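Please, structure for the following, as tokens.
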Amino acid sequence: GKPYEEKAPDGTDSYMSIKGSFLWGKNLKPEYVWFNGNAKHYILGDKIDPSGLVQINTLLGSYDDEDSKIVPVKVHRANQIYDTEHLTLIQPKTFSSKPGDGGYWKEFDWNKAAAEGMKAVNLPYSGKYGFVRTEMTWPINHMVGTKDKTVACGECHTRDNGRMAKLQGFYMPGRDRNEPIEGLGRLLLLATLLGAFAHGGSRLVAGWRNRRDA
């Protein structure tokens, strides 16, 4: 009934009563999505489908959209409280300004925190709650590495689970297989090698003739 915290070996929080469990990492690779500058957002009170993954926001864009570009993102994955009858996400009251006001961080009573929170935003609460998986996508607009930390081409152009592995709908050299394109590439490479050998050979023959005539 009282809050407590657990620490990981490196001193970071691994569990906090008010927020749950944490997983920490360093030098993590971002995820990547197509983004044209527009997004859809969950609005408090919207209905959800608890049988699946609830997207708090969705960045819009695609390969076929000329206004889209590939952007790095962080994805926040969590379990959030929702109303099992109204099928809406719940805005719980978390902070307490006085004893007994239902703030979860003080009383740790989900039902009371849900009732007080939904009352504050003028939305109904059935008194029944559960938890649903959610995702929120954050474009990375800060904490960007310096130019000397630019990644190598092979980070993306690879068939071995590269950074762009989840982006589909287009051909990426080094990542995807396309026999006509790769066949043409092999022919061009062969033609280049033959041309180089032919040119080098002609230079050798010309040099030999010049020496002989001299």
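The first strand starts at residue 5 and ends at 7. The two ends are 103 Å apart (CA to CA).
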